Amino acid sequence: MADNDTGPVGIYTINESGLCDSYIPTSLSGVFQLAHVFFGLAYFGGSTLHGLLYTYICLFLGYLVFTVYGFQDACAADIGGWCFVFTVLCLLQAIHSIWRMREVSFSEELTKVYEALFHPLQVPLLVYKALVECPNCQIVSLEQGNNYATEGKTPVDRLSLMISGKAVVIHDGKKLHMIGRNQFLDSPEWESAKDQEDPGKFQVTIRAETDCVYLTWPRRELLNLLARRRYLARVLSAVLGRDLTNKFYILNEKVMTPRGNKYDIRLPGFSRLLGQFDLDAKGLASFVPHRFGAGPEGDRGTTGSPYAPVRPK
After folding, report:
1. Domain-embedded: residue 5
2. Alpha helices (runs of H) in the chain, residue ranges in sequence order
3. Closest CA to 257 of 223, 292, 224
4. What does the alpha-carbon distance between residue 224 and residue 85 come to, in Å, rounded to a whole number?
5. Which residues form the POPDC1-3 domain (predicted)?
6. 25 φ/ψ angles, rounded to the nearest 5 degrees
7. CA proximity to 308, closest of 269, 255, 261, 268
8. Could you report the per-residue pLDDT of 74-125, keeping only the tens digit for each?
9. Range of the domain at 160
10. Is 7 part of any domain?
């Protein structure tokens, strides 16, 4: 090696200022380039278990090729030695990820629930596992004709998700809507009472139309879990919000005003109406009953639904 050379012979030279004076005119070997291709591919892994496994496999291949380059092409024991250490670490991490994926296994029923509700939101399997393994969470069967909840009697002390079967929601003897697979049986009650010390009782009757199987969480245990796992709380809130929206739209199609019009749950706020129609207080008083279809006959729709909008006073 020449006096002004450092590193492998002919790769680069260093001047008196300590900077590179010249570089090798040709590119390094294809082994060196291939290693960095694998390193680049490793950046495309996600945060899920499958994404982590992909990342560690790419890093393993990259360091493995770099180890060959260090010992064979660069003839540098330190480069080859460090890359070999990282190769072993990445291999162990990949094996650990595979083991974690093997541990996260569910029954066929719970797997279908995950694929239908949580996989589209890219929820990691470990987060879903924490939800379905909540203390006292269990899968319950309900025979046809039996009630899941009885109006005015059953306390709101749980949250349940229909796995299979159909149930009907009844209020004052009238059918409001059906509950099918991958829908929550009591999402309105849960959302209205989750922050209250005394959640009260069901205002509707929920009856099984067919043999049903549902997944149920006790209220207290689920609230404790969501308090500890904020990400899981946001995910469940999004899933419940979609379920509630579907229920309200179904009810909106059935709720009729005394004038024979349908309520619209997408009505804009009063401030927007005032700006649009330039109404004063007197004009608003005459406008509101006409806009909402409410008259002196009553404040609720003809169905008597507990979810029917109330005319503003």
Report:
1. no
2. 30-42, 49-68, 77-103, 108-113, 125-132, 187-193, 219-228, 230-254, 270-277, 281-292
3. 292
4. 43
5. 31-254
6. -70, -20
7. 255
8. 788 888 889 899 999 999 999 988 887 776 678 888 999 999 999 998 888 8
9. 108-254
10. no
